[in-house]
Amino acid sequence: MRVALLTEGARPHPDRGAGAWCDRLAEGLPEHDFELYLLTGPAGLGSAARLSPAWQGAHDLALWGRRPRGRAPGTLRRRQYARAYEELVRALVLPGERAGFGAGLYRLAALAREDEGTLPAFLGSAHARRVLERTWRLPGADTSAGQPLVRDVLVAADLLEQCLRPLSAPWYGTGPGGLGGADLCHVVGGGPAALPALVARHLHGVPFVVTEHGLHLREQYLGFPPRADGGAGAESEERQARDECRSDDRRHRVRAPGGERASHEAPYRWPVRALLLSFFRALTEETYRQAAILTPGSAHDQQWQRRCGADPARTRVVYEGTPAVDRPAAGPEPERPTLVWAGALEPGRDTELVLHAFARVRAELPAARLVVHGQETAPGYLAHCAAVAERLGVAVAVDFAGRPGSLAEAWQSGTVVVFSALSQRSPRLLADAMLSGRAVVSTDVGVAREVVGPTGLLVPARDPRALAGACLALLRDEERRSRLGLAGRLRAQERFAVEPVIGVFREIYLELVSQYPAFPGGGGVGEGNRAPRPFARPAEYWLADGARGRDDRDSRDGRDDREASAGPADRADPADPEPGGGGAGAPDGRSAGRRGRARRDGGAAGPGPPLAVGRPGGRRSGRGGAAGPRLGGARPGRLAPLTPARRTPVRSRSLFFSPPGRPRPRFVEGRPR
Q1: What's the CA gap between 150 and 143, in Å, rounded?
Q2: Are residues 559 and 657 in the same domain?
């Protein structure tokens, strides 16, 4: 099958490290054709020769670059764009109109598909800014307790244009390179990368899977806007794990109009941040609502997705596989008992807790050392930690080693690995430490209990006494330390191996294709001179002689129903000597014509007597005082009394299946005709 993989900021190039998650997925499923759809920065995808051979093709769109050129829409078209854009913005700023986000989004996508290149030009025009400003300042709008200024409107309009730029991508056709011709889409990372999958789902019914190893919406709430150069997706695990030792230095920063970052690196004002958070929240809820299956990277992320409206029945936890499971365990322990800590030097990692706990450890073990690996991300925090160590009297035994060359070297330098974060969102760093074979002590927050389990020691957060006690228990007991380290390595190898992840997604792909067998964009054998595609038609289609046989039977059934619905009074009237000729009152056949017209107009059929309609003034319609045509062919008037003598006989239907081409037997008054 053809799988379209959509991600943001990924670089699936083998020469950048040990290989990316997206690369491993495509290489592990060679029976499927993978095409990469990438949202990049101004630099684009680069040379196609650097792509992994697993990709059948690659398509990129500059998401954070300068706005693409395009012609502005005409006057009438601009009004249609303005109405759809206003509906979208109203859903973002008015709490009572949240449900209109999807309608406005899909309307903008439909307009962008009809007019190629006009959507970015409209979103960057003064007319769109006026729509945004007028809607944003409506009474009751959610502006986070701050009135938007003119500069806020300019910045927000530019950021919304960048976020909505995937709607104008040339990817939504059914031909080669189009998402409409794919069997399914796989979104990696969420956020704006889910927009093409939503549009393909809306236009062509293509199902999509969403894989999130770090929730995009949670990062937005924590203050991590998307990077200008694209930082998520398919970098090597070694590089991504090292990035855990430092925080994103682009926190709360805006980009200048056109995609380039502002030179002053100014932070967002609260109205802009509230608008962006509302957009990403609405986009996440729509993505979770339309996705066929969600595959979070941990049960902790699964709880976040459920709070955002994800269906638990369509959610499966799939851990992020890493090639580090094949890495050999760390070598011999250092001679002196050493605690090693790795992470970003910021208050959220709570390095002060480790320093206070180490002061208690050193009081019991004077030969103990503490090695801190990490890069300063909060200005002045490194100096603050050094001052705390000096005040506690352990500065001579604390080594601030900076950013490590590799994580394997960092774990090699310690006897026990310590984690003291206030929120452990990603399992990547914990799993890498467990794969080294060193015993792990961590605060019981986030994914720590799920990843470490019974193979390590968990302590409450912000409790230096409990952390010191756990470290002392492992430093004094070599046999327990070795047993926990080996158990942790085996647990990490079992949960984070690459092969089980590949097998899970193979099953998910086949399950989705079996549930979504027929797409409007797909064709059958011989339709439009296109090659036959598997699963283009459901099994019931071929069991019923295809489209032609189905249409013939439908027309035949409709003709049988119309003939059977006509009673014996219409087939052989007492006043007519011949059923097919003219009656006594109409020798020229006018009565037969009237009966034919009444029959074409649709007569009522059923076990009860038909309704007779009288003409205005009490005169009954029909010939010789008899009941006239049924309700379908009568002229408007009041209801006349029913005639008991002219009842429609009960029409029996065949209870067995007739082969195609042979009409089913019809029964009139109990006798086969």
Answers
A1: 14
A2: yes
State the residue for tokens 């069991």: 543
Alpha carbon distance, N-terminus to C-terminus of the chain: 52
Please tell me whether residues 341 and 399 are part of one structural domain.
yes
In a domain, 172, yes or no: no
Q: Is the pLDDT of residue 464 over 80?
A: yes
Average pLDDT over residues 389-402: 96
pLDDT tens digit string along 170-197? Answer: 999 988 889 998 999 999 998 999 999 9
| Helix residue ranges per DSSP H, 291-372 | 299-307, 351-364
Backbone angles phi, psi at 261, to 5 degrees: -70, 145
Tens of pLDDT along 423-452?
A: 998 999 999 999 999 999 999 999 999 999
Mean pLDDT of the residues in the chain: 77
Q: Are residues 421 and 554 part of one domain?
A: no
Q: What is the C-alpha radius of gyration for the chain, rounded to an integer number of angstroms? A: 36
**What range does the domain containing 388 cover?**
323-496
110, 134, 163: which is the final residue of a domain?
Answer: 163
Is 309 within the bounds of a domain? no
CB neighbour list of residue 255: distance below 8 Å, 6 or more residues apart: 64, 158, 159, 162, 228, 261, 262
Domain's final residue, options 127, 143, 163: 163
**Band of residue 268 on the pLDDT scale cut at 50, 70, 90:** confident
Is 434 inside any structural domain? yes
270-329 confidence digits (pLDDT tens) = 899 899 999 999 999 999 999 999 999 999 999 999 999 999 999 999 999 898 999 999
Place of tokens 């490194």: 382
Contact indicator for 208, 187 with CB cutoff of 8 Å: yes
Banded pLDDT at 388 (limits 50, 70, 90): very high
Query: Which of helix, strand or coil describes residue 372?
Result: strand
Q: How many CB atoms lie within 10 A of CB 137?
A: 13
Span 372-396, average pLDDT: 95
- Residue 490 has phi, psi (to 5 degrees) of -65, -40
Query: What would the DSSP string read from start to end of 552-595?
Result: HHHHHHHHHHHHHHS-HHHHS-TT-SSSSS--SS-TTSHHHHHH
- Whether 337 and 479 share a structural domain: yes
**What order of strands is seen across the sheet that includes strand 293-296?**
55-62, 33-40, 2-8, 184-188, 208-212, 293-296
Residue 300: closest CA among 286, 312, 317: 317
Specify the pairing of strand 398-402 against strand 369-373.
parallel
Which of 237, 228, 219, 260 lies closest to 22 in space, CA to CA?
237
Nearest to 538 by CA among 526, 529, 547, 530: 547
Report the range of poorest mean pLDDT among 1-15, 104-118, 496-510. Answer: 1-15
